[in-house]
Amino acid sequence: MQWRREGDRAGSPGPSAVLITFVTALLAGAAGVILAGLAAWVWVGAITFGGAYLASRISRGVTTEGPLKARRLLLMLDRGGSQETKAPAEFTEEWGTLYERLNKMAFEARTSSTALAELERYRKQADLAASILRDGKDPLTEAPELRVGPLQSLLEGIKTAASTPVVSRLPLGEEELIGADGEGLPPTWPKPTGESSPRNPEIAEGVARGLRQLVQDLEALAATLGGEGHRQTTATGESADLRTPAQLVDAVVLTAADGIEDLAAGLMRANELASIAERVTNRATLLALNAALEATRSGSEAFASIAEETRRLAEFAREATDTISRLASEIEYKVGETITAIHATSEDAKTSLAGIAGAAMPIPASARSARAQIGKLLDRARELQRGLNASSSDLAGGDPAAGPNSVQEHVENDPPRADKLPAEGILLIEGLKPGARLES
Amino acid sequence: MNMNLGTRGALTFRLGDFSFAVRVEEAGGVLDAERLAHLPGVAEPLAGVAAFRGEMVPVVDLAAYLGIEAQGPSAQRYAVVLTRGVDRFALLIPEIPKLVPGRDLREAPASAVDPELGELFESELETDQDHFHCLNYWKIFETMIPLGGAAGPGRSSVERVS
User: Fold this and answer.
1) Are B32 and A282 an interchain contact pair (Cβ–Cβ within 8 Å)?
2) Mutate to test the interface with B, among A271, A285, A289, A325 (most CBs of B within 10 A)
């Protein structure tokens, strides 16, 4: 009470006020520190949450980009792709590669399906045309849709060919090739008629092609029959060496001779061993003889028994050596006989093969007459070709009246009759076909 | 022993058309004469020298000495060594001799003696199948190499030959 009064009296703070002020300042400082710490934590949290938010936003942007590109890919696939289409510029390298590959696949699938559909359409047209042709009608008249498309030219060609006589479509008639009597060819062909009628250049061209092919076939056939049987010409013009049967026999004999040579070498070695065994036997015999000699001279029974055993041993060795030598001699003799038999068999086989080759000619024509016949055919075909070439040259010259006869005209005027084809000619043709077997 | 014959047996062999015998009492052994050592400057019938029980013995080609064509079935040759005291020499023959026991041998009559053998002939032995000429082989050797009185004990045959 005293104190309060003095303080009131003096007008200055007392000790309790100072204390209160001090405590208040202390509490304020502590509160400030606490608040500053809280503020720092608030900032750290805010930065953390902000970063997390930004990261989530960024990642969300990446994941949403995939569906967009996929949708562009699907759109491209729906269009079917094209050769000009390129990957969008904003696509990454992987997405761009995927886009281009899918584009290529889609384009190929689209074109393939188109071609398949086109092919199916052609097949239906071909079926339709075939069914109409089977009915004996004209497909171009019956089915107008066949007038356009790839079958048009083919059907027109069929129509033209159908309107031409059958014989006239042959490059050459069988009668001209074989001869009416089967022995020779007509003396002159084609027959001159004094006028030219190159009315159908397409058929003439077909005849010319047939003639060229015929000449080539005949040349090859003549070369084959002319003694080149050991060489075979393939379709590509390559010639492959084929061994004749005689060469095959030689090869077999050579192989057997090699084996027998090896056997003979082994036999020589066996003979050497037999010679060594002979020497050993001789030594044993000498030993037995000397033992017996000593036993005889001394008169010793014990020495005599040893000498007897030695003699038996030497005798046994002698028998074995004689057997070996006899067997070796027998084997050597048989090897010699076998070699002789192989050589004789080889010669017989060659002779037989030569006989078979001489007898294996087509009946009734022999190879010589076949060659002669083919030579005549070849000459005639070349003559025809020259005439046809001259006719074509005249035709190209624009003077049809002055040109010689065409093959077509001759065939039309004087068609050969198939029933005149002689049996011998048929046999000759059959025999000359590739792969035909020559039988005796 | 066949006391009448005076031998226990004989080594027999053929030379051409002739059969010869060497009494076992004279024979020292039989050699394989495949590898004879030929002596320089010595002609037939001395064929060379051969080793027999550690000694060199001269080898005489009996066929060449007697002038007999003795071509055997092979080139194999053998030598029968004859001994007399310390003296030895060998006879070259084309086949392995056979030992005929004395019980199988008999003395042949003198009429069977081949006159071509002359003074070399000593005796004739026979079996049931064959006749054998026993020659004085040492006489053959001495005609080629005279032994004389120089041949004393302890000197080898090679020394006398040389």
Assistant:
1) yes
2) A289
- CA distances for A407 relative to A172, A196, A355, A385, B78, angstroms: 8, 10, 45, 10, 103
In chain B the domains, ranked by start, together with CATH numbers, are 9-145 (2.40.50.180)
Strand partners, B107: B125
Question: What span, in angstroms and rounded, lies between the C-alpha atoms of B98 and A314?
Answer: 13
Strand partners, B61: B92
- How far is the C-alpha of A330 from the C-alpha of A57, rounded, in Å? 107
CA B124/CA B133 separation, integer angstroms = 5
Q: How much is the pLDDT for A132?
A: 84
**Any B CB within 8 A of A301 CB:** no
Check whether domain A245-359 has CATH 1.10.287.950, yes or no = yes
pLDDT in tens, B114-156: 666 777 888 888 888 888 888 889 988 888 776 654 443 334 4
Neighbour count for residue A101 (Cβ, 10 Å): 11
A13 prior amide bond cis, ω within 30: no
Where are the domains positioned within chain A?
Answer: 16-70, 142-231+379-432, 245-359
Assess contact for B5 and B97: CB atoms under 8 A.
no
Chain A residues with beta carbon closer than 8 angstroms to that of B96: 282, 285-286, 289
Contact A299 B29 (CB under 8 A): no
Tell me if A293 and B25 make a contact (CB, 8 A cut-off). Answer: no
Q: Which two tokens stand for residue B123?
A: 């005796």
pLDDT in tens, B6-21: 788 999 999 888 889 9
Question: 3-class SS at A397?
Answer: coil
Q: Taking CA atoms, what residue in A is nearest to B10?
A: A293
What ipTM describes this predicted complex?
A: 0.82
